[in-house]
Amino acid sequence: MKALTYIEHGKFALMDKPIPEILDPRDAVVRVTLGSICTSDLHIKHGSVPRAVPGITVSHEMVGVVESVGSAVTSVQPGDRVTVNVETFCGECFFCQRGFVNNCTDRSGGWALGCRIDGGQAEFVRVPYADQGLNKIPDSVTDEQALFVGDVLATGFWAARISEITEDDTVLIIGAGPTGICTLLCVMLKNPKRIIVCEKDPARIASSGSIIPKCWSASQKTARNLLSPIPTTVVPMWCWKWQVPRTPSVWPGNAPGPMLSSPWWPSTTRPSPCPCRICTARI
Prior knowledge:
By secondary structure, the protein is an alpha/beta fold. It has helices at residues 39-45, 94-97, 130-133, 143-146, 152-162, 178-188, 202-211, 220-227, 277-280, and strands spanning 2-8, 11-16, 28-36, 61-69, 81-84, 124-127, 134-136, 170-174, 194-198, 216-218, 232-234, 250-251, 255-256. Residues 236-283 have low confidence and may be disordered.
């Protein structure tokens, strides 16, 4: 089969590889029908992901049809149309039990697909822990629609959910790329008083404004002026915490920003509970 492969810093190549096989009873092999490019794939190419293994097939955003399953898989069967979860997780370890599936301690856990094991920019992909990592696509949903579920739309939905938006809020979304637009659409479900999208690219500003007439699309400078008199919720993509709590960042215009640090704890360290409202709601 053909597979887009990470060769070395700055170099990807389309290569011939064997079709993957079941290696564990909890695996499934999926025939990829559609895949997309994540900025994380570009991070690998640019050398920003030291964990990425040269020789792996890149990509973790894909949908497809189940070709084969291991003996322990119960949620899907050959012939099912499925989405593939961006995270690989066992569902049993300390982190998985508390909802932090991207920190799964399994060898293939967390961001594995397209980083440490072969991903989905290929004709076929092996998905570990298929019962957790695959979801059936309803007949009424097309592959094009379902492709958003595994990562980009889920990120926007989660961002809107953890921000606890009310109808009296002004919401600031930083960035109007694909994830920003998905976040915008999910924020709309909360019906806030105002939505401001901060973006420096003129084409993206025009695009986000055309989607939502009442949405204010603005450059960084304009957004700062708009925000100065307004109490604002900044939508975080997720909570990023080490063991030691950090002071929230402050955006220009006195708008409170998300708490920022790294989402990956050292595998040898059990974290102290994060005290923020995002994490205490999940623990």
